[in-house]
Amino acid sequence: DAKTTQPTSMDCAEGRAANLPCNHSTISGNEYVYWYRQIHSQGPQYIIHGLKNNETNEMASLIITEDRKSSTLILPHATLRDTAVYYCIVRDQGGKLIFGQGTELSVKP
Amino acid sequence: KAGVTQTPRYLIKTRGQQVTLSCSPISGHRSVSWYQQTPGQGLQFLFEYFSETQRNKGNFPGRFSGRQFSNSRSEMNVSTLELGDSALYLCASSPGVLAGGYEQYFGPGTRLTVT
């Protein structure tokens, strides 16, 4: 079973920041949080991952709470092309990705 | 670097037939994993291959099998196809074994339709 819970859907205005929350209250101390997104009928795309420190790359920022029970993916300036399903994943002991239902983000003009 | 490639992209088969799907990982990547995506069950892990050995397996029946070649290319096979096997089959490659925490890069998938 997925170890994360996410809202089913969210809307964001084009050009604004999109903040996607994720709860992972049962995460273990050495488990990373990964974010992927999937644009309709394409393969999932890796976005970012982190352990306990905040992370930033060219696509997004990842903010993990100090107790590590939740995190937020931030797309700083959302565009229409960011419309996708976003998956927050905590990998299992064997390392495989256990996908939940994800958050369907709609970026609107 | 070229990304993960999967062939064929689309496939239509009849119940009872078998099918073989192919995946070429990113150059230098040695781990290949397979996932099934359906509207009802979402994305589910099938298995992982690393250095020609199956390292990890999901909860799928024995009709689903795979293998990996010495050049890291992988194939998965589904025998005695059922209507419920209609899905998007995704291949993902990693530089190292999944338990090492490497990120995975997905291919575009093969859309299998069973009639």
Structure explained in plain terms:
The complex is a heterodimer of chains A (109) and B (115). In chain A, the strands form 2 sheets. Chain A has a 5-stranded mixed sheet with strand order 1-9-8-3-4, with no helix packed on it. A 4-stranded antiparallel sheet of chain A has the order 2-7-6-5, with no helix packed on it. Chain A is globular, with a radius of gyration of 13 Å. Helix content of chain A is 0%, strand content 44%. By secondary structure, chain A is mostly beta strands. By secondary structure, chain B is mainly β. In chain B, the strands form 2 sheets. In chain B, strands 2, 4, 5, 6, 9, 10 and 11 form a 7-stranded mixed sheet that branches. In chain B, strands 1-3-8-7 form a 4-stranded antiparallel sheet, with no helix packed on it. In chain B, strand 5 and strand 6 (53-57) form a beta hairpin. The relative contact order of chain B is 0.33.
How do the strands and helices of this protein lay out in sequence?
The complex is a heterodimer of chains A (109) and B (115).
Chain A: E1 9-13, E2 18-23, E3 33-38, E4 45-50, E5 55-56, E6 61-64, E7 70-75, E8 84-90, E9 103-108
Parallel strand pairs in A: 1-9
Antiparallel strand pairs in A: 2-7, 3-4, 3-8, 5-6, 6-7, 8-9
Chain B: E1 5-7, E2 10-13, E3 19-24, E4 31-38, E5 42-50, E6 53-57, E7 64-68, E8 74-78, E9 87-94, E10 105-106, E11 110-114
Q: State the assembly state of the protein chains.
A: heterodimer
Strands of chain B, total number: 11
Tell me the overall shape of chain A.
globular
Low-confidence stretches of chain B: none
- Estimate the strand proportion of chain A: 35-45%
Q: Pair with the most extensive interface?
A: A-B, 21 and 28 residues
List the total number of helices of chain A.
0
Count the strands of chain A? 9
Ends distance of chain B: 37 Å
Indicate the mean pLDDT of chain B.
94
What is the N-to-C succession of helices and strands of chain A? EEEEEEEEE
Residue share in β-strands of chain B: over 45%
Helix content of chain B: under 10%
Radius of gyration of chain B: 13 Å
* Helix-and-strand structural type of chain A: mainly beta
Radius of gyration of chain A: 13 Å
Low-confidence stretches of chain A: none
Largest sheet of chain A: 5 strands, mixed
The SSE string of chain B, one letter per element, is EEEEEEEEEEE
